[in-house]
Amino acid sequence: MKKQVFVVPHSHWDREWYFSIEDSNTILSENMAELLTFLEQTPNFPTYTFDGQLSVIEDYLKHAPEDVERLKKLIKNGRLHIGPWYTQGDTLLLQTESIIRNLLIGKQGAEAFGHSMDIGYLPDIFGQNAYLPSIFKRFGITHSILQRGLYHEQVNKDLNFQWIAPNGEAIPTNNIYFGYGPGKFLASDEQYVTQTLLPILEALEKMNPKDAPLLLPAGGDQVFVRKNFPKVIEELNQRDWPYEFILSDYESYMEKAWMTPHETKINGELIACQKSRIHNTIRSQRMDIKQKNAQIEEKIYQQLEPLGVLSQELGGNYPQNWMNSCLKLLFDVHAHDSIGGCNSDETNREIMNRLYKIERIVDGYLNILKKQISRGILAEEEGVVAFNLLPKKVNKQLSFIIFTKESSIQLTDLLGKALPQVIRNQEYISGGTQVKVTAEGEVQVELPGYYRTEIAAEVPFEGFGYRKLLIQNSLNERLASVENTKIKNEFYELEVVDGMLEVRRYDGAVKKQLFDFENMADAGDSYDFSPVENGLANYSTKFKLIDIKTSSQESEMILETTVAVAKELANWNQLTEEMTIQTTIRLVKGSDMIYLQHQMENRTNDHRVRLRFLGENTEGLSYGDQGYSLLERKNHNPYLANWREEGFAEAPQAIFPLERFVTINEKEGNVALFTKGLKEYEATDDALYLTLFRGVGLLGKDDLAWRPGRASGINNKVVATPDAQMHGTLTFDLAYRWVNEELHPQKLYAAAEKFATQQLSYQLQTLNSFEERLDRFELPQPAGLSNLPTEKIGPSLPENLFVSGMKKAEKSDKIILRVFNPQIAPVEIPAHLSQTGTLDEKELGTIKELPGKDFVTIIMDKAGE
């Protein structure tokens, strides 16, 4: 019996890269138009796969709307396969909620065209998120196909395996070992058959059980349909050899391959770089893109969507179409090359423009919803509204911007009791002039000035909702400079001692130097960091104390240090320049986090800057959060010693991604770093490194120290990318936590929750119409948002459950609440939150408890029920 070879004709569509999205879409218009005509006129070409991205179809239809019915007919009849993604997003650089939402929009959109491909298709992204098997299964997707991230020994006996998520959920998966293009130039001539095709088939046979069919993807980047494939298949099948070729699709292959079970099991995240490059330092490339993306994800998932739920619950609007429009733009950014930043400068500028556009829309709707809700609460009264958009009991410091005619200002509850608070900053603003039209013509009228005050106040919430606060004309404590060398709270005391930043913990433990900065020359490209030959790192000088500010609620320390840098890569060891770094450290009453902000002016080319936190790591392990739990990783990759001899595509450096935080157990307690957009770390026996940025000026470079051979991406052409040198002012925000306890997932995720911005405020006022960009415009008031109570308290989750997302359902007014349990032990689910659903928001049964490292989608009729 002949071995079946499933040939899958397809296009892998990079929407932007060294070319622009406009380049891609103009080519798309030509290719797709011809593909549709060809499929309609050629019934013996059974099916074609268009990369699993709905966005490509939408891009085509923007300029060919007349073809929508033709597309639907071909998709419904299985002639053209699309979905389940909206775009092929990098799954290691995003909030996991973005992965789910990308699939939600992609799968539902593809189904509206007639069919969504039943494959979790991952042909080209740089590593796989550990929770993808579970996410796929909960969308009703039955199989997965992927290229990168596996060690040869994992699949050398069977390319089909059960891929298992940390929560134990598994999906049948195939590794396209030779990538998505081994059959790209499929032909029947003798030279191609003997020199190319047979060696590939023989290698695939060795990595498949005897009776299993073989998979031969036959496509490539931006390729046009190979019209000769039916003829080639016919000619190949006329040969006297042990193969039968079938022109088919991925669904048909996986159905046939899994008619018999496969025993191999592979767990968790897939980031091995033996056969395919993973580019594990791409996560610090073009940090401006990654930081802005993280900021926007937080604004959408932790602010705008739950605020929209609150608005709908109160009788107002939920701007769903605008939100989905923003998400689609965001998912364009999430395409693996786009979020990776490994593009031409022209493309990266367009990505940043896209992010700024999304941010303007999101900020606009945050402004609108806050104002409409606040008008319903305050009417024309003076006052301010504090929002808690996390469905949990919270007591947290919240930032307010308040405008008043008097400089004396204090926030109180409705009984007049002052909140714990401090004025961080206050400035007097001239009222300017106003033009008035009179019978004698236009005249300018002087307006009185006012004060803009930044206040940090501790506001308790019993659950999801809001509280009205009062603004009193009363003296308030101010954060003020003092003659001192230290700051402290209940948990830490920080002091500069002989130029070292010393931290003393509440139990007496001391670190003589909390952190410093590492600089190293980077001879790499937009994909990978590369050390220069014999290159060594150099570290920042002693800290200089600039200022200390204290109050009863928080204290602040400003430091400066310098790092010696080279003028250019050619003279990397001549450290003749200095980069000054200013660090602001903040301690807050009641918080065991040390808040850090680092700002620097980068004028240097081809280097990498990392934060180095010193401490003895006795376990030899680190734990990065990903999806809904912590992933354990070894500080030393055992393959590193012989990676070249074993044919690795890259050096398997123990440099890892993180979603929101990384943690390690040190000799004297647990250390964690919480970040906003910083996505790359390395743990060693004596330090934890967090990459701030790397600046390089080339897209594509041959023979790097950690990546031998050809340049990644485009061959035989080097594209200059001066923007990727990251010149200019760079700012990085993070928090550090050092406690006398072993690793505790619940406490760590609670700390990450506190570090996120899920509490907002709004003052209804007429003094300033520019702080919130849309306040200067007239705005209608929804009829339902009137006479609102002064306080609204919605659901409150148990403290050991954590929120991934809270939104309105796509096809109803029900509320979707996604929660997870990062611990090993199960957590009881409150009865009023027991109704569950699939990830595509179809109702399932009820749930009583959530197992460890698991997540659940809860469907509620109302946010308060």
From TrEMBL:
Annotated Glycoside hydrolase family 38 N-terminal domain residues: 4-257
A GO biological process held by the record: mannose metabolic process
Top-rank lineage group of the source organism: Bacteria
Higher taxonomy: Bacteria, Bacillati, Bacillota, Bacilli, Lactobacillales
InterPro entries: Gal_mutarotase_sf_dom, Glyco_hydro/deAcase_b/a-brl, Glyco_hydro_38_C, Glyco_hydro_38_cen_sf, Glyco_hydro_38_N, Glyco_hydro_38_N_sf
A single GO molecular function term of this UniProt record: alpha-mannosidase activity
CDD domains: GH38N_AMII_EcMngB_like
Domain Glycosyl hydrolase family 38 C-terminal: 506-695
SUPFAM superfamilies: Galactose mutarotase-like, Glycoside hydrolase/deacetylase
Family in the record: Belongs to the glycosyl hydrolase 38 family.
Record protein name field: Alpha-mannosidase
